[in-house]
Amino acid sequence: MNISDRTTENKPELPGIASGIIRLKPQQFIHVLDNNSGVTRLEVGPQTITLRDHERLILKPEPMIIVPPRYYCIVANPVLRDENGNPIVDEHGQIKLRYGDAEIRFAQEPFPLYPGEQLAEEIAQLQVVERNQALRLLAKRDFTDSITVTIDGESETQTINRLAGDEWLFEGPATYIPRIQVQVLEKIAARVIKPNQALRLMARQNCIDRQGIRRRAGEEWLVREEGAYLPGVDEEVIGIIAAYILTEKKALHLKAKRTFTDVFGRQRKAGDEWLVTFEQAEIHIPDIYEEVVGEVEITTLGDREWCIVLNPIDEDGKPQLGMQEVRQGRISFFLHPGESLEKGIQKVYVLGEQEALLLKAKEAFSEGEGDNLIQRQPGDMWMIAGPRDYIPPVQVEVVEKRQAIPLDKNEGIYIRDTQTGEVKVVSGPQAYMLSPYEELWEKELPPIVEELLAIKNDPVSERGRHHTNKSGDRQNQISEISSRSETKSERNKTRAVVFHVPQNAAVQIHEYKERTARTVFGPDLVMLGPDEAFTVLSLSGSVPKRPHVIKTLALLLGPDFMTDLFTVETSDHARLQLRLSYNWYFDVNRDDEQASAKLFQVPDFVDTACKAIASRVRGAVASVKFDEFHRNSARIIRTAVFGTDPEGRVREEFRFRTNNLVIFNVDIQSVEPVDEETLKSLQKSVQIAIQITTDAQEAAARHDAERIEQEAKSRLERQAIVDKGAAEAERRNLLELQAENSAIETTGQATAAARAKAEAARIEGQLAVNLAQQEAEAARIRYETELTQLRAKQEAELAHQQSLNNLELEKAQRMAEITSLEFRQKVEALGPETLQAMAQAGPEMQARLLQSLGLQSVLITDGKNPINLFSTAQGLISPVTSQTQQLPRSDRET
Fold first, then answer.
1. In the list 247, 557, 657, 728, which could disulfide-bond 586, CB 3.0-4.6 Å?
2. How far is CA 670 from its chain centroid?
3. How does DSSP classify residue 297?
4. What DSSP character marks residue 69?
5. Among 876, 879, 884, 869, which Cα is nearest to 849's?
């Protein structure tokens, strides 16, 4: 069964069609094809049609097309009609169609579709264009359009010729009647311009807008009238621009994009910047050529405020570049473009009774009137004192505000003269005001002095603080000093350094400028000058003595004590450790400056004194035995330290002449042997008593230990028997498990051996296959390589031969060009006259030769070969021609 048979079977048969009889109802039509003539005709009901053998139904019965009122349809390939509206038929009886064309049909009686006609679109309703709306239309072909316009209240019809590509608007309210020649591009709605808004438009091409103004393509403009605005066909809406609301405290900063005249009638040039304030307009809509830089807030100055405006704007709106203007008082103003405030809004300088301003002239100016006229030069400095208010002019710079420095009786400050560089100390009681050419000077001190001054401790009552740490290292001391000074502010370096010298203490001060030193005894107050510095004492401390443990500014004069620990050795080599304490004081005459200076000649008197005393004691102890020293230690040590007078009595003091240090007492705190054997012999008696008590305790403990040991042995034996039985049971289980493991191991070994043999055979076969594949691959690669080499060799030879051929061709071409160039140059050198003379020279000479011989005609021949008379004549004159040709080229050219 073919496709046509299947299609026929699947079609549902209409009543009356299968038998060739078609009954058409009213408003139905069909298309019938005459196979003999090939013409398709239209049949409209109501009627009954009987199909003949040569007729076939093309279109089954279809209802006629009904177009309701205010609807339309588009018919493609419409029929051609005559003047009466009847279809036109060709000579074969076929209805003629307008192929490729279309026809719009509106509300009418139901109509059929002729053969070839089609509905291009569904039946659609006519489009209603409302008020403030329009359709943008495009002409697809040339046609003539009629429009109705109202002139002076009367409606007139005008005819417009539309060209393909024209665009126009169909504005409402109206019903749009479609045409085949016209295409609807889009539907445009009017834009509503609200208060404080403007519509920004752009011309697509040269046109006249709705306001009657001619616009150029790309030009932009604003429509500021409120209400609905329907853009023209050549107008493009860019957007809605909102107005800026201006107040008394806010202005608008604008910038011109190009030269134009703004809405206020003022011409603006490209790049100009200006302000629009509340005085000019309450609202402002930026023009097309105006760029909004930003909003400017008003600047308000109070009664006690002022400011300096840089580059102020004059009355004509031009910036005065480089100028400055002072504005003060109760005033409000906007900063125009280009203007700026120097240092912002400043308060009026209010000077009290003890305050003044240091001023500096930035440029030459005059102040005052009459006899009080003062000329100021650039760089001049002066001061004005209070009480008063002051606002500096633009020519004056306020360097600083100064206040009188109140100084007590024990206070001072360092002052430096900026003109001479001299530094001095000003002390109280007074309130000191710096002069214009004076400034506070900072005195730098060594870090250790800064630390000692920051401690604020009493050298007398807190002198033992340096010995609180057992290690006595410097780091712990510094950490303690820093912990105390953390809570205190840093020293004001411009203030005079003041130190309170305690009772019964001395401080040495160096004056580096005069190269002198002075000693101050307490209680007193020391104020350092600009070139003075303290003498820092670095003393030994701790037990035994270690250097640089104590840092201090004040030297205590005593009486005081110091303790030292050192080792001595007797004559019988018994080493002892002595701990001695010495009482000391300084014997000094405070009225004698030279004697006072001796106090600080020894940098570390503690270390010097302790070493000297220890040396004497070691020498004395080395000359006696241990037993004698043990019995007479006090007398031996005192005699060694103080010495004896000529009468053999022990002296009362040991005096150091270098710094007048006096040691007047020695306290023996402890004597301990250093050697272990000696120490054991001294403690032997004590150890014997202790040994007796220890032995009794050991005997009781031994009896308890033996009893506990016997009980433990019995428990151990019982436990051993129990453990042995458990071990035998576990051994039996172990043997059973070992037997099972042996069986499993034997089975596994056999299985593994079989698998290994099979795997080995498989690997050998795979290896043989891989080896054969690799050998084949190697042979293929080798042949391909040889083929590639042969091809490359042949290509190289071919390229080489082509290069040689190209070179030969190029050489032949160049030789031909050279030969032709040489011949052309020879011809040009000889000239046409010379060539013509040379061509005529042969015949003329032959004729003259015959005339000179007097021969009319001569012919000499053997009768066998033809004779050329001209060649004969030429042979007669050939010697002359040969000589002419053998001349040098230069002669011939001449």
1. 557
2. 75
3. E
4. T
5. 876
Burial (0-12, 13-18, 19+ Cβ within 10 Å), 790: exposed
- Per DSSP (E only), the strands in 605-660 are 654-656
Angle between helices 633-642 and 605-621 (to 10 degrees): 130
- Radius of gyration of the chain from Cα atoms? 67
- Rounded to whole angstroms, the Cα distance separating 735 from 801 reads 95
Q: What is the model's pLDDT at position 863?
A: 53
Q: For 257, left (φ over 0), alpha (ψ -120 to 50), or beta?
A: alpha
Residue 569 in 3-state DSSP? Answer: strand
C-alpha–C-alpha distance, residues 296 and 660, integer Å = 84
| Rounded to 5°, angle at Cα 50 from 45 and 55 | 105
Examine the pLDDT at 882 and tell me if it is beyond 80: no
Contact 610, 661 (CB under 8 A): no
Q: Which residues sit opposite 427 in a β-bridge?
A: 412
Residue type, 308: I
- 């609301």: which residue's tokens? 245
Burial class (CB in 10 A: 0-12, 13-18, 19+), 577: middle
Any bridge partners for residue 16, and if so which? none
Instruction: Write down the residue that tokens 């309703």 correspond to.
Output: 125
- Helix H or strand E encompassing 315: none
Half-sphere exposure in the Cβ direction for 331 (13 Å, CA): 11
Q: Quick one: pLDDT at residue 44? A: 92
Half-sphere exposure of 417 (CA within 13 A, CB side): 8
Neighbour tally for 373: CB within 10 Å: 9
**DSSP character at residue 126:** P
Q: Is 359 left (phi over 0), alpha (psi -120 to 50) or beta?
A: beta
Please give the distance of CA 53 from its chain centroid, rounded to a whole number.
91
**Residues β-bridged to residue 252:** 276, 295
| Whether the predicted pLDDT of 1 surpasses 50 | no
Q: What pLDDT digit, counting tens, does each position of 279-313 carry? A: 888 999 899 889 999 999 999 998 889 999 998 98
CA–CA separation, 461 vs 444, rounded Å?
Answer: 29
**Encoding tokens for residue 149?**
């316009």
**Per-state percent for the chain, helix, strand, coil, to nearest 5:** 30, 35, 35
Residues pairing with 250 in the sheet: 247, 297
Q: What is the pTM of this model?
A: 0.50
